[in-house]
TrEMBL record:
<keyword id="KW-1133">Transmembrane helix</keyword>
<feature type="transmembrane region" description="Helical">
    <location>
        <begin position="61"/>
        <end position="80"/>
    </location>
</feature>
<keyword id="KW-0812">Transmembrane</keyword>
<feature type="transmembrane region" description="Helical">
    <location>
        <begin position="92"/>
        <end position="113"/>
    </location>
</feature>
<feature type="transmembrane region" description="Helical">
    <location>
        <begin position="361"/>
        <end position="381"/>
    </location>
</feature>
<dbReference type="InterPro" id="IPR029485">
    <property type="entry name" value="CAT_C"/>
</dbReference>
<feature type="transmembrane region" description="Helical">
    <location>
        <begin position="388"/>
        <end position="409"/>
    </location>
</feature>
<dbReference type="InterPro" id="IPR002293">
    <property type="entry name" value="AA/rel_permease1"/>
</dbReference>
<keyword id="KW-0472">Membrane</keyword>
<feature type="transmembrane region" description="Helical">
    <location>
        <begin position="266"/>
        <end position="289"/>
    </location>
</feature>
<dbReference type="GO" id="GO:0005886">
    <property type="term" value="C:plasma membrane"/>
</dbReference>
<feature type="transmembrane region" description="Helical">
    <location>
        <begin position="27"/>
        <end position="49"/>
    </location>
</feature>
<feature type="transmembrane region" description="Helical">
    <location>
        <begin position="442"/>
        <end position="464"/>
    </location>
</feature>
<dbReference type="Pfam" id="PF13906">
    <property type="entry name" value="AA_permease_C"/>
</dbReference>
<dbReference type="GO" id="GO:0015171">
    <property type="term" value="F:amino acid transmembrane transporter activity"/>
</dbReference>
<feature type="transmembrane region" description="Helical">
    <location>
        <begin position="507"/>
        <end position="527"/>
    </location>
</feature>
<dbReference type="Pfam" id="PF13520">
    <property type="entry name" value="AA_permease_2"/>
</dbReference>
Amino acid sequence: MSLLKAISRKKKLEEAASLDSNLRRCLGLFDITFLALGQMMGAGIYVLTGTVVRNMAGPSIIFSFLLAGAAALLSAFSYAEFGARFPRAGSAYTYTYVGLGELWAFVVGWTILLEYMIGNAAVARSWSAYFDTLVDNQVENMTVGAFGEFNTAGGFFSRYPDFLACALILLVSVAISLGSRISSNVNSTFVILNIVVSIVVICGATYADFSLWTGTVPNGNYRFMPFGVEGMLSGAATCFFSYIGFEMLATTGEEVKEPRKTIPRATFLCISVVATIYILMSSTLTLMLPYEDVHPRAPFAEAFDAKGATVVRYIITAGALAGMSNNLVAGVFSLPRSVYAMADDGLLFKFLAQVNKKTQVPLNAIIVFTLLNAILTLVFDIDSLVEFLSIGTLFAYSIVSACVLILRYQPAPIGNDYKRLDNGGTLRAWIPFRNFWESLPAGGSISIGVALLVSSFFSFIFALKLELYGSVVGMLLLSLNLLVPFVPFMPCLSLLVNVAMMAHLSYLTWIRLFIWMAIGLIIYFAYGIRHSKEARRLTTIADMRMSSTFSHRNTLKQ
């Protein structure tokens, strides 16, 4: 029972909602909006678009980006609500600590660290590869000639050490270590350049040929949707990861001037801007060339080159490099702050929470995880690891949506701005088995409801995947869920979308995640569970109560 209490202890709401912080609050609406745009606008549009157009969706990629943006917005609403109510560094980690407890918080936080490291490594390697195409693969040839090949193509390790990508990670980390304001300014410069280049690409609509969207293809499908609805939906699942980055708005919660107003506004603003640019750019691309002629690695640059616009090709290349630099700056900025949040709570080693007095950034966290990130970038094959991005991100998004459902109905104080106690709501008279639900501990009915909801989603999706449309288990769980009070539509829909995507991941992805989580759990049970700040707080409260009881007994005796 003591172990169960330890892993389920929750961060105190008043502490989580406090605006007090050791970090400097210096970022405004446009600062964090540009940081999120920097995380989103890059490899997702300049590299991913070519593959989706050519192999998955064709011109219907515009609907793929639209659906992916809608799915991202659903998760973003949950993040925005949490980021406004509990403005602390750590994003989904902190939210889970408040809503579900310490062990789940550590699991989510540990997954987010992996997500950021792999994301940074993937972007750095993409930047290196894109640059290498400009110099006719001279970087690759020189490196292989000097050091030989580590592994064959497609293996777990990279074919050759990517020193350029490694150096890029180190360089960006140096800029980040100089302080939030400097890193924000650097990122904003890249975003402005990237938006200008995006406008140049959209101007490519002067080459538009709408006949490329009409007619049919040999398989009988319309040319606009050559791979059918299924291809468009597969493209949407892939394009979803072009929107990854909005969660870092909540990660900056301790450095934003007015987080309760700024974070929700920035969330809606950045997703709207990115979705609009992605749709316009992909429309331009598919109107310039037949979908089967689109280059998979450098689609926009090669499209302008095919039209004889050589100067524009180099401008686009510069924009692609700037966009991926955006991704890298935002990712390297967010990683140490997530580490800081966990270390400050005592779940990771204490020295990682030390803040440099001069720059007011978690310098030790930056140094340690930059070195780990650089090694990952240097020697590992990113194609074999990038699947972690999907499962880690979707897992974190799902937990946050579940936390929104649970916290909305928890009988607990909600922030310092509220003068009342939220009693969690009451059950309506028509609810079946109402006496049973009301007999549960406070918040018990909603917790059971969320568990049934997620289970029914998984069963339903797997039933569809296996073509078991009459799945008894799925129908039973869906029926049981109807006995629970209805809960907010948005978080439920977000959960359904995320579960649907996770259910289609390969078993190897899950195995790799389990290995990473095993390492993290060893750290937690060997160190974090005993050094948790929340554990010390609860111990102090217990000691005070014992001392008070002892004093009271002595008084009675006297």
